[in-house]
Amino acid sequence: MSLPTGIALFVVTVLGMELFAYAAHRWIMHGPGWFLHASHHRPRTGNWEWNDLYAAIFAVPSFVLLLGGAHLGWWTGWAWIGAGIAAYGMIYFGFHDLIVHKRVRHRYIPRSSYMKRIVQAHRLHHAVHTRKGTVSFGFLYAPRPEVLKAQLRSSGALTQSSTIPD
Questions:
Q1: CA dist., res. 95 & res. 106, Å (int)
Q2: Which of 48, 58, 93, 126 is the most buried (most CB within 10 A)?
Q3: Could you read off the pLDDT of 117-162 as tens digits, one per residue?
Q4: How far apart are CA 131 and CA 134, in angstroms?
Q5: Cα(147)–Cα(153) distance, rounded to whole angstroms?
Q6: How many CB atoms lie within 10 A of CB 75?
Q7: Cβ contact 133:156 at 8 Å
Q8: Cα 1 from chain centroid?
Q9: CA–CA separation, 55 vs 89, rounded Å?
Q10: Which stretches of the chain are DSSP H helices?
Q11: What are phi and psi of 164, to 5 degrees?
């Protein structure tokens, strides 16, 4: 496989992973997988939460594709796809765990409108502590905060004591 084709496959995979992540978050994590994801919608009491198992689960296809495409004689495109999945996982970790949830101490403050929008969207996602009525399931793309706030208000999922984050 040519290098430009491999790079294109890698980039398409990274972008496609946002669609997969949206679907998995909305219909698996907030569906039958809520038993793990619920821990992410509660205050964390230690370094780990049950939701962290999703990182290990989603790493398996990446590992298998990288191994097969690079060392087991499979089509080399599988290695590029596996690398794209791994890259998305690293991007997700950086945005979600480091920047949004500050799981490692840092002094970074989002200044760009894009970064502010991603952080705000995730805060709005966490305004609801149940599996139903939440908004913004993507990780690298988020609708405007005004749209998300309107969706939250109309969902009826907020309790009397709930506030919509700014």
A1: 13
A2: 58
A3: 988 998 888 888 888 888 888 888 888 888 888 888 887 766 544 5
A4: 7
A5: 10
A6: 12
A7: yes
A8: 30
A9: 8
A10: 3-23, 34-37, 53-71, 77-92, 113-125, 145-155
A11: -90, 120
